[in-house]
Amino acid sequence: VLDDDPTGVQTVHGIAVYTHWDLESIRSMFEEPDAMVFILTNSRGMTAEETRQIHQTIMQRIVQVSQKKQQPFLVISRSDSTLRGHYPLETEVIRQTVESLTSLRYDGEVIIPFFMEGGRYTLGDIHYVKEGDQLIPAGQTEFARDKTFGYKASDLKAWCEEKTQGRFPAPTVTSIALEDLRSVNIDKITSQLMGVQHFNKIVVNAIGYEDVKVFVLALVKALEQGKEFLFRSAAALTKVIGNVGDKPLLTRKDLIRESSTNGGIIIVGSHVNKTTKQLEALTNSTLPLLAIEFNQHLVVTPEGLEPEVQRVVALAERNLSEGKSVVISTRRDRFDLKTDDKEAQLRVSVKISDSLTS
């Protein structure tokens, strides 16, 4: 699993996660006892060219080790359940690199952004984001207005056409219907998968984990008959295809040593409305927390963010050592460059993120 953001592992446990992709790390990855491993590329915070280079390098090394060990592999490109990220760039680079170095030819790409834990559902090919007690089409949410990875379509077939700039028109996209998944029509779904070729797209509807499980049963049948697929998914598919069991939420005992006298630290960087509401609920609670605001707008000053980092670190460390817990959050009014240059905006966002977590 090539994961573009650290949140991809939140549905799994006991799985190796690699943050380096040198040749020795790739060799070690192939020797892991589990059938599934993660490589955290963190590419959602990179430019398109950086993303292209690291995916090409990773896949070249995976192919090299795979051929030496005579061990086949399957690649999942794990990304955002609200459809943000370097798509279709990442899976196209994976495909081109693998096909240029091997005889393997990918028949299609499976797109499955369902993520139940986050309230992300696909129904009638429309991808929805749950907000309160409502399901909002993804294209109408604040996520679709992302300065770097924005989009308009909520229908995943139309989204494929939009993101590929018409190279894969909506009518050519194969849709795996919820009705067939719920009726466990494995033969029909397998037949649909067998009919896909030329790297065409497959959209999987899902509103529960059982839908993903049924799809994977059909997928395995198609793979056994020689079909080859790449995957662009959120965090649900990896849990199912990796056969990872459920685990309770972490408790205080799991997280905190009884002997520790230090305070805890919570860092809040996201500016989406849901995060802001969570932050408000936290700071308005009766919990003994010190709120520290990090002023990311100083990124454009001559001194940059370093003085602000030093101020926040000193304040946080003093309180942590005294046993107080702190919440460090960015200013809630988002800083955006007044430009249409998406990569310039991304570079500023990464600079802010790096400073906030340094």
Structure write-up:
The chain is an alpha/beta fold and 358 residues long. The chain folds into two domains: 2-241, Putative sugar-binding, N-terminal domain (Rossmann fold); 252-356, no CATH class. Helix content is 37%, strand content 16%. It has twelve helices and 14 strands. It has an eight-stranded parallel β-sheet, sandwiched between helices. The protein has a three-stranded antiparallel β-sheet with strand order 6-7-8, with no helix packed on it. Strand 6 and strand 7 (126-131) form a beta hairpin. Helix 1 packs across helix 2 and helix 7 packs across helix 8 (235-241).
Work out the count of structural domains.
2
| Main sheet overview | 8 strands, parallel
Terminal-residue CA separation: 27 Å
Order of helices and strands: EEHEHEHEEEEHEHHEHEHHEHEHEH
Question: Can you give keywords for this protein?
Answer:
358 residues; alpha/beta; Rossmann fold; 2 domains; 3-stranded antiparallel sheet
Short description:
The protein is of the alpha/beta class and about 350 residues long.
What order do the helices and strands come in, and which of them pair?
Blueprint: E1 2-3, E2 17-18, H1 23-30, E3 38-40, H2 48-69, E4 76-78, H3 89-101, E5 108-112, E6 120-123, E7 126-131, E8 134-137, H4 156-163, E9 174-176, H5 178-182, H6 186-194, E10 200-204, H7 209-224, E11 229-233, H8 235-241, H9 252-255, E12 265-268, H10 273-283, E13 289-294, H11 306-321, E14 325-330, H12 342-356
Parallel strand pairs: 1-3, 1-4, 2-3, 4-11, 5-10, 5-11, 9-10, 12-14, 13-14
Antiparallel strand pairs: 6-7, 7-8
